[in-house]
Specification:
Helix content is 44%, strand content 18%. By secondary structure, the protein is of the alpha/beta class. It has six domains: 106 residues, Rossmann fold (3-Layer(aba) Sandwich), CATH 3.40.50.2300; 85 residues; 95 residues, PAS domain (Beta-Lactamase, 2-Layer Sandwich); 172 residues, P-loop containing nucleotide triphosphate hydrolases (Rossmann fold, 3-Layer(aba) Sandwich), CATH 3.40.50.300; 66 residues, Helicase, Ruva Protein, domain 3 (Orthogonal Bundle), CATH 1.10.8; 104 residues, Winged helix-like DNA-binding domain superfamily/Winged helix DNA-binding domain (Arc Repressor Mutant, subunit A, Orthogonal Bundle), CATH 1.10.10. This is PAS domain S-box domain-containing protein. Pfam families: AAA_lid_14 (PF25601), PAS (PF00989), Sigma54_activat (PF00158).
Length: 686
């Protein structure tokens, strides 16, 4: 039967504060009764096993209602870190009044605050000062206080007092619940508590440090561990045991392991003090390999320990060892700090990718050629829980179908003509526990798409020419510069595989949408090549106006080209794309002039509305998205511009006829063209 505890204090607020701490640490193991000074006259007696009181004067008031054999705990109180911070922010040399629930409790709390390191102010008890002393002085209260005078001007509420470490330890000892004060509970319940009991806190820290080391050791072992004493009571039960048995540590500790697990031969080991190695048993219909060893020291038995692993996990260990014997390592070299850029667009992509790294779901990275999709994939792997395992990359467009299949699945000896003696593990196996990066996933043949989907669903693979099933556990990151959704609609890519891969979509922005990164990337790349050239202003202008279809990869090629020119000053004529762009300008200048004239004729008195639409389409273009007429209508309305959806539709059609926008079918929206961007820029400059 559970023991009972009565929390007695002056106010219900302080009672609730202590109750919350006790419940957080001991859960439902203690029946707690709440008692305030106002309740005494109605209940007449306090009938519990233990009574917790905050001060001696409170005890004097209630002791006649307490049975003689009842245990008494006098609470040592403290304050929260937030409360202490509020006190530390009080102006230096201030004289401050402190109000607690009684004179004795007030003096006690003043001592606690001084002990916590407060030296910059002078504290006085409310119960020893006169009214004139309170008028202009700051007043500290703990939670709600019925003693707070109405004439107090500056009030600092530091929150209800809290139970200190040694009081919690006293409660644990009185109720025989010390085993519940593990490091997780203490850290959770005391993360915001400032303790004045430094000696006890130090001891707890040392004990928790040892316990942490043991916990780390137990959690590092890739096996379930159950320890029992000579009576069969469980004193050790790690996380892997929880997963195998299907019960939590809290449910198991102090229970009788011999009775709970009759299929584990604990009784035999305790009786004969002999180990039992790798016995195959069944738990919840699943085969488990268990070894039991007696705990003996100085010829005295202290119990037994069972170490267990799922049978399928032992198979996985064999595959892991086999991979090490093969000796082929796959390592990700890049981290997020290797992804350069200052723009909000690239930083947003990095932020999203960092959050994705913590997940185990498949990622589909999309982006134009040269945007750094593999760089992102490696950075995600190196920030994930799988970072200590292989990063295996393959370009699906670099192999013919038959060779790609053997690379992915591996093969057994003699599977086909030319097969390596002894066979070869596939990339699925090599990526076990790590990450498999499938670059240019759009190029994978339809026949292999079916097989890939099955591996992703079942996490099982069979080598070519083999018949044994190999369990694999890897995270897949795929990348493409094509629109997979369109390929699905065209029947060129399986829809089920698309949705299996596109769980977490990640878009990498092209350089043209983040112009502010271009010169920065140029300079950083120049440092990598040890280049010592300087860019003339005309060269900078041309670099900024260049479209950079090859993105970061094109910048790298351009810088490498300029480094090899061995020129101190790089002018516009030295750039590898300058001549090509001038031709383009000469060819199109007349066309753009004609479009401009026609545009001004078409828009006439509605020019402002047309410019508004073009401005919004440009913003969408920079953010790599498209706008429909409904979206434009909403934006116009929010900006106080009257534009009906019908009017927007007409204007978009006219702009498309002028080749300034491209209106897509259905709900795909509208995108501004290069001509539209050029003419908009011309109007701005005009």
């Amino acid at each position: 039967m559970k023991k009972t505890l009565a929390i007695v204090s002056y106010s219900i607020e302080s009672v609730n504060s202590y109750y919350a701490q006790i419940r957080a640490l001991f859960a439902e193991s203690i029946i707690v009764k709440k008692v305030t000074i106002d309740d005494i006259n109605t209940i007449k007696n306090i009938d519990t096993d233990v009574v917790l009181v905050p001060s001696y004067d409170m005890f004097e008031k209630v002791k006649k209602y307490i049975k003689k054999d009842t245990d008494i705990i006098f609470a040592n109180r403290t304050i929260s870190r937030v409360g202490l911070q509020k006190i530390m922010e009080i102006k230096k040399s201030s004289k401050v009044i402190l109000i607690d629930e009684s004179p004795e409790m007030t003096e006690q709390m003043i001592s606690v605050i001084y002990q916590l390191g407060v030296r910059h102010i002078s504290l006085e008890s409310y119960w020893t000062v006169g009214k004139e002393d309170i008028n202009d002085k700051p007043v500290i209260i703990l939670g709600q206080s019925e003693h707070l005078p109405a004439y107090a001007k500056k009030i600092i509420n530091i929150g209800n007092s809290l139970l200190d470490f040694n009081t919690i330890m006293d409660i644990g000892i009185k109720f025989d619940l010390i085993h519940m004060l593990n490091r997780q509970d203490i850290s959770k319940s005391y993360v915001e508590v400032e303790s004045a009991n430094f000696g006890l806190e130090e001891i707890l820290g040392m004990l928790n440090s040892r316990e942490s080391q043991l916990d780390i050791l137990l959690q590092t072992i890739d096996a379930g561990v159950i320890g029992i004493d000579t009576e069969g009571h469980i004193f050790l039960f790690n996380h892997n045991a929880e997963k195998i048995i299907g019960l939590s540590k809290e449910d198991m500790i102090s229970k009788n392991g011999i009775e709970l697990f009759p299929h584990i031969p604990f009784k035999h080991v305790l009786r004969d003090l002999e180990s039992i190695e790798e016995k195959l048993i069944k738990i919840h219909g699943e085969y488990v390999v268990v070894s039991i060893n007696p705990l003996v020291h100085s010829n005295k038995s202290y119990g037994a320990v069972a170490i267990m692993r799922r049978y399928k996990d032992t198979e996985k260990r064999q595959h892991k060892i086999r991979k090490q014997l093969i000796g082929k390592g796959h390592v990700a070299k890049y981290h997020f700090n290797n992804i350069m850029g200052r723009s909000s667009a690239i930083n947003k992509s990095k932020s999203i990718a960092k959050r994705m790294a913590n997940s185990n779901s498949s990622i589909l990275i999309t982006g134009e050629t040269g945007t750094g999709k593999e760089l992102f994939a490696q950075a995600i792997h190196n920030s994930s829980p799988r970072k200590n395992y292989p990063f295996v990359a393959i370009n699906c467009g670099a192999f013919p179908e038959s060779l790609l299949e053997s690379e992915l699945f591996g093969y057994e000896e003699g599977a086909f003509t030319g097969a390596r003696k002894g066979g070869k593990p596939g990339l699925f196996e090599l990526a076990h526990n790590g990450t498999l990066f499938l670059d240019e996933i759009s190029e994978i043949p339809m026949n292999l798409q079916v097989k890939l989907l099955r591996v992703l669903q079942e996490k099982e693979v069979v080598r070519l020419g083999g018949d044994s099933i190999i369990n694999v556990d890897f995270r897949v990151i795929a990348a493409t510069n094509k629109n997979l959704k369109s390929m699905v609609n065209e029947g060129k890519f399986r829809e089920d595989l698309y949705y299996r891969l596109n769980v977490l979509p990640l878009k990498i922005p092209p350089l043209r949408t983040r112009k502010e990164d271009i010169l920065f990337l140029f300079e950083e790349t120049k440092k990598q090549f040890n280049g010592n050239f300087m860019l003339a202003e005309k060269a900078k202008e041309l670099i900024l106006s260049h479209n950079w279809d090859g993105n970061v990869r094109e910048i790298i090629n351009c810088v490498e080209y300029l480094v090899n020119l061995d020129s101190r000053i790089i002018d516009a004529k030295d750039l590898p794309f300058e001549y090509e762009e001038n031709l383009d300008t000469e060819m199109n200048i007349q066309i753009q002039r004609e479009i401009m004239i026609e545009f001004l004729k078409t828009t006439s008195h509605d020019l402002r509305k047309y410019i508004f639409i073009l401005e919004e389409l440009k913003k969408a273009y920079i953010n790599n998205r498209r706008l429909g007429r409904r979206s434009i209508h909403k934006i116009a309305k929010s900006n106080g511009i009257f534009l009906s959806e019908q009017e927007i539709r007409r204007m978009l059609i006219e702009l498309e006829e002028l080749q300034m926008v491209k209106v897509c079918k259905g709900r795909a929206g509208t995108v501004i063209t290069r001509e539209g961007l050029n003419i908009l820029e011309y109007i701005r400059l005009g």
